[in-house]
């Protein structure tokens, strides 16, 4: 072998060795620390983002019933407070995108949910937009669905017995003073706090608002809390290390947007004993990458797809379950 070739192969060996050691150091060893730190939040988790929202209108009864019956680990929801103080479930701050508010309350469709009473919000159709946007997945039973309260989602989660796990985001928490107290009261009344189901805590809290998680820590210290982060949160906290330290101070985990889930970010989070749940991933190649980078679970619109990827496929297809549910 010529000297040039030998140098080439030695260089390749050194680079491969460096990559392997970096992967072991950043990903594998921190995962061992995590096993000891958080046995109460097993991994990997399938978090049904806004319910099974690929197949049914997000944050509606069919989306949650489907995610539950597929067997996702967690039903994810975003909560808001109505003008009359009821905790309701919707992603956006206003009803414009996912309801017919423009017809029912013309001129009010861009108003915050906090400006509507529950009775007003219950007059809206939260399903027909999906049928128009996704005709290939449309179903008659989606039309006319009503906005759900958090208590109603718990009833769906508990309908088959047990306290099926929910992963609740205090969305725009700064708009809703007192939402944490109201939410905890609903969960306590329904018996969800401190409960578990198939080895998983029945409730995990999540928020982009650190202050909201601090309040939830005071109100329900036993419930795991995940600090959601994207680039602006990391910037505000003063960098990744500071963000991880903050997440460890107020909670149990960190929920970064997928593009922040590099191994050199996941590793420090694990070394702080935090679980890492990435959002929102809907493709197999993304699940593969997240697994390689060491994340402990993903928020996904395709809970059926992620369950298959993690080797725990649902016994029935989404279509068969929706047919059985009568949608
Ligand atoms: O809750 C995790 C993820 O859902 C955050 O993004 O906007 O879908 O609530 P968003
Ligand atoms: Ca959310």
Walk me through the structure:
This protein has 327 residues and is α/β, with parallel strands linked by helices. The protein is 43% helix and 15% strand. The chain is built from 14 helices and twelve strands. The protein has helices at residues 3-37, 61-70, 101-104, 118-121, 128-133, 150-157, 179-189, 210-219, 231-237, 240-250, 263-271, 284-293, 303-309, 318-325, and strands at 45-48, 74-81, 87-89, 148-149, 166-170, 196-197, 200-201, 203-207, 225-229, 253-256, 275-278, 297-300. An eight-stranded parallel barrel has the order 1-2-5-8-9-10-11-12, surrounded by nine helices. The protein has a two-stranded antiparallel ribbon with strand order 6-7. Helix 1 (3-37) packs parallel to helix 11 (263-271) and helix 9 crosses helix 10 (240-250). The longest helix is centred in the N-terminal third of the chain and has 35 residues, at 3-37. The chain starts with a helix and ends with a helix. Bound molecules: SN-glycerol-3-phosphate and calcium ion (CA). The site of SN-glycerol-3-phosphate (G3P) has 11 residues, from strand 2.
- Tell me the distance between the termini: 69 Å
What portion of the residues fall into strands of 2 or more residues? 5-15%
CATH-level-4 superfamily name of the domain at 38-77 and 156-325: Phosphatidylinositol (PI) phosphodiesterase
CATH topology of the domain at 38-77 and 156-325: TIM Barrel
What small molecules are bound in this structure? Answer: SN-glycerol-3-phosphate, calcium ion
For this structure, what is the CATH class of the domain at 38-77 and 156-325? Alpha Beta
Q: Kindly provide the radius of gyration, computed on alpha-carbon positions and rounded to a whole number of angstroms.
A: 21 Å
Number of strands: 12
Query: Which word captures the global form?
Result: globular
Strand order of the largest sheet: 1-2-5-8-9-10-11-12
- CATH architecture annotation name of the domain at 38-77 and 156-325: Alpha-Beta Barrel
Structural class: alpha/beta
- The average pLDDT value, as a whole number, equals 92
Q: Summarize the biggest pleated sheet.
A: 8 strands, parallel, barrel
Secondary-structure element order, as H and E? HEHEEHHHEHEHEEEHEHHEHEHEHH
Uncertain runs with pLDDT below 50, 5 residues or more?
none
User: Helicity, in percent?
Assistant: 40-55%
How many H/I helices? Answer: 14
């Amino acid at each position: 072998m010529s000297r040039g070739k030998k140098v080439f192969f030695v260089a390749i060996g050194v680079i491969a060795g460096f990559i392997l050691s970096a992967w072991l150091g950043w990903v594998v060893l921190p995962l061992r620390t995590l096993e000891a730190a958080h046995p109460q939040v097993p991994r990997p988790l399938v978090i049904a983002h806004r319910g099974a929202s690929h197949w049914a209108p997000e944050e509606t009864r069919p989306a949650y019933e489907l995610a539950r019956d597929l067997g996702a680990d967690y039903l994810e929801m975003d909560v808001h407070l109505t003008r009359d103080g009821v905790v309701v479930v919707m992603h956006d701050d206003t009803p414009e995108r996912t309801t017919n508010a423009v017809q029912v309350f013309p001129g009010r469709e861009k108003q915050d949910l906090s400006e509507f009473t529950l009775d007003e919000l219950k007059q809206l159709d939260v399903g027909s937009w999906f049928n128009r946007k996704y005709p290939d997945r449309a179903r008659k039973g989606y039309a006319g669905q009503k906005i759900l309260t958090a208590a109603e989602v718990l009833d769906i989660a508990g309908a088959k017995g047990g306290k099926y796990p929910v992963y609740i985001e205090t969305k725009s928490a700064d708009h809703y003073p007192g939402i944490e107290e109201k939410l905890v009261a609903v969960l306590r009344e329904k018996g969800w706090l401190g409960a578990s189901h198939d080895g998983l805590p029945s409730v995990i809290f999540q928020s982009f608002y650190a202050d909201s998680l601090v309040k939830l820590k005071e109100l329900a210290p036993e419930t795991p809390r995940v600090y959601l982060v994207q680039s602006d949160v990391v910037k505000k906290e003063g960098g990744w290390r500071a963000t991880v330290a903050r997440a460890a101070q107020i909670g149990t985990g960190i929920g970064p947007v997928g593009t922040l889930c590099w191994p050199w970010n996941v590793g420090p989070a694990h070394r702080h004993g935090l679980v890492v749940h990435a959002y929102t991933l809907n493709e197999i190649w993304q699940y593969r990458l997240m697994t390689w980078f060491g994340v402990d679970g993903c928020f996904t619109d395709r809970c059926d797809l992620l369950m298959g990827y993690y080797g725990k496929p649902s016994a029935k297809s989404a279509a068969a379950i929706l047919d059985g549910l009568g949608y």
